Amino acid sequence: MIRLGSLLCAAAVVIIAGVTGVGQSDPSVAASVKNFLLAWESGNYAAAGAQTTGQPVVVARALRNAYSQLGADDLSLAMGRISVSGNTASAYFHASVDLGRGGRPWTYSGHFLLRRHGAEWLVVWAPSVIVPGLGPSDRLAVLTTVPARKPLLDSAGRPLILLSPAVEVGVRPGRVVDPAATATKLARVIGLARSEADQMVGQILAAPPNTFLELVQLAPRKFDRLSTALGKVPNLTHKVVTTRLFRSAVPAVTGQVGTEAARELVKDGDPYRPGTTVGLSGLEQAYQASLAGTPTTKVVVQNAAGRQVAVLKSWPGHAGTAVRTTINGGVQRAAQRALAGLGLSGAVVAVRASTGQILGVAEHQAAGMPAVDPLGGRYQPGQAFTIVPAAALLAKYPTLGPDTPIPCFRVRALVGGQTFVNVPAVPKLGNPTFSDVFAHACTTAFAQVSLRLDPTDFYGAAEQFGIGAQWRLPLRPAAFVGSIRKPSDQGEQAADAIGTGTVLVSPLDMALAAGVVESGSWHQPAVVTGPSGPTLTSRVKLKGLESHVVSRLKELMADTVRSGVARAARLAGPPLYGQVGTAPLAGHRGVRAIWFVGFRGDVAFAVVAFARSSAFDPAVQIARLFAERLPAGS
Fold first, then answer.
1. 8 Å CB contact between 82 and 89
2. 233, 131 in Cβ contact below 8 A?
3. Beta pairing class for 577-584 and 418-420
4. Residue 512 contacts by C-beta under 8 Å, 6 or more apart in sequence?
5. pTM
6. Which CATH number fits domain 329-629: 3.30.420.10, 3.40.50.720, 1.10.10.10, 3.40.710.10?
7. Same fold, 3-136 and 329-629
8. Which of 27, 44, 349, 391 is 20 to 30 A from 176, comparing alpha carbons?
């Protein structure tokens, strides 16, 4: 944008008419000022230098260096007041410099003297022509200070992002022989676009020459992976620091952090800025603005020794704000320890039954097994889902109780044209009751009793347990809300009743469902405390369970642990309630999702483990280890 060029004729006439001591017959002063500013603004530094008393090469170099030292994207100059006294004149101008950092431009007023040389007027050259106060050996620099990223905190205010090594990769600007070559090659290695490489050049040129300029901060593993390529970038150096950035106590919740190498920075339209950290997922991404804060930028003058002698302009930034989560440190550690050493992929999600607050989210990845996603996974819950048809039956038939006889077919059951078998096999139960078939996760029994329910009964109960409720957390990617489709026939309803069919849930969904049994109603999950941050959808309120349904469901879940298939999880002290389940893992032949869903006190939780066996043992073992490690009062 060349404002002088667009206003060429009009500006000359208007300004000349108001110039002290210059008449209509002598427009040469205004013309000289105009031509010098226009050449400077347009980057024709040689032409600008020729219109001064200095050596044109020296002037051109000074103008060019000033522009590059600022890392400027654009320069606009406008003529101001001109006064003339004999063979000398004084001219004022207004400058607007786009520093290319996504903020407001730097504006200032400057002035210079002119001297008559025959029929011409030449600008009396001095570095102060560029910026008032700039001395012969001084240079301009732009200092950008990015505040340290604030951490995500647990419910007690302790950081969830742990101290860990990081590698700062950068340069000593004064030692960079070819900034463009360094920036281009580094950008190629770390995945920046050409436009960001150009911005990096500006940062190198604008930074103090004798200080370390961090260009990108990498996790040690990533640095090791890129070390060979980074070694080929000229004039690059690095140092190892310790920071709260790359290592999380709850990665499924906090998400990951990258640096300015992250393409997300470019997608959001933000400029390249050394030291910037970018949330790539989870709460780190959702609360990017709160955690990162804003940088402080200064335009300064430095002397030949590199010392700052003046601050010409400052745009103060502000520190980020820590975000407190609902994660309970003791519950989180209990979940992690329950999974430690597990030879299977597994996860534990725990919530406060009375509020829906997420207390802990842990996951474990085993070699050669599918990864588990505790918040966004979409899995069939198997017999763990029988708490839903059980609740529907208890609500529809008030006389139904734990001692009511319910047959358990040991071989198979035919319902709606579909055949159902018990996986794993159920031992002979004699004259089984409702409590027996629930405690032993009898698939054939629940497939049969589903016939006693109208679709409205069963799917209304599923809604009471929050399956498919339209809630969301401030997490990216989003957590799964669960889904179930109303059946076309009795066979589909029977399959849904035993947690296969169309039912899909995440471990978080099932932890919330367990909380319904403990508290009597479903509570929308929450992971952040306080009103700040991304706006959530309106609160979801669901109809609660009747009191007699709650009390009998608790009896059923108590019996599963006391004398049923989960008796290996029985503990002294406060009782543990639960239900188990198993279902094929879609897309992984021969692998099954093994579940334990339950609660102890006000902590409701779901365990899922991936195994090549249908036995409930892995989930039951994890549930016991987790429940016995829960801190008192949690």
1. yes
2. no
3. unpaired
4. 351, 356, 465, 466, 522, 523, 525, 604
5. 0.85
6. 3.40.710.10
7. no
8. 44
Q: Is the pLDDT of residue 204 over 90?
A: no
**Bridge partners for 240 per DSSP:** 167
Rounded CA-CA distance 410/416 in Å is: 18
Domain ranges, ordered by start, for the chain: 3-136, 152-324, 329-629
What is the mean pLDDT of the segment spanning 165-185? 93
Distance CA 260, CA 214 (A): 11
Amino acid 100: pLDDT: 72
* Burial 267-277, CB ≥16 within 10 A → b, else e: eeeebbbbbbb
Torsion sign (Cα): 494, 500, 492, 461: positive
The token duo for 527 is 């992971």
Place of tokens 């899922």: 608
Length of the chain: 634
Give percent of the chain with pLDDT exceeding 70. 92
**Domain 3-136 falls under CATH 3.10.450.100:** yes
What confidence tier does 155 reach under pLDDT thresholds 50, 70, 90?
A: very high
**Backbone φ/ψ region at 633: left (φ over 0), alpha (ψ -120 to 50), beta:** left
At 318 the three-state DSSP class reads: strand
Locus of tokens 């930074």: 207
Whether residue 355 has pLDDT greater than 70: yes
In 151-210, which ranges are E strands? 152-153, 161-171
Work out the angle at residue 613's Cα, subtended by the Cα atoms of residues 506 and 615, and round it to the nearest 5 degrees: 80
410, pLDDT greater than 90: no
CA distance 347 to 29: 79
In the chain, the percentage of residues whose pLDDT exceeds 90 is 72
Q: What is the 3-state secondary structure (H, E, C) of 398-409?
A: CCCCCCCECCCC
Give residue 264's pLDDT: 59
Q: In this predicted structure, what is the pLDDT of residue 18?
A: 33
> How distant, in Å, are the alpha carbons of 160, 389, 464, 485 from that of 456?
44, 12, 12, 12
| 3-class state of residue 343 by DSSP | coil
Q: What is the pLDDT of residue 131?
A: 97
HEC-encoded secondary structure of 11-75? HHHHHHHHCECCCCCCCHHHHHHHHHHHHHHCCCHHHHHHCECCCHHHHHHHHHHHHHHCCCCEE
Once rounded to an integer, what is the mean pLDDT over residues 479-507? 94
Beta pairing, strands 346-352 & 603-611: antiparallel
455-464 and 490-497 helices, crossing angle to 10°: 30
Confidence of residue 308 (pLDDT cuts 50, 70, 90): confident
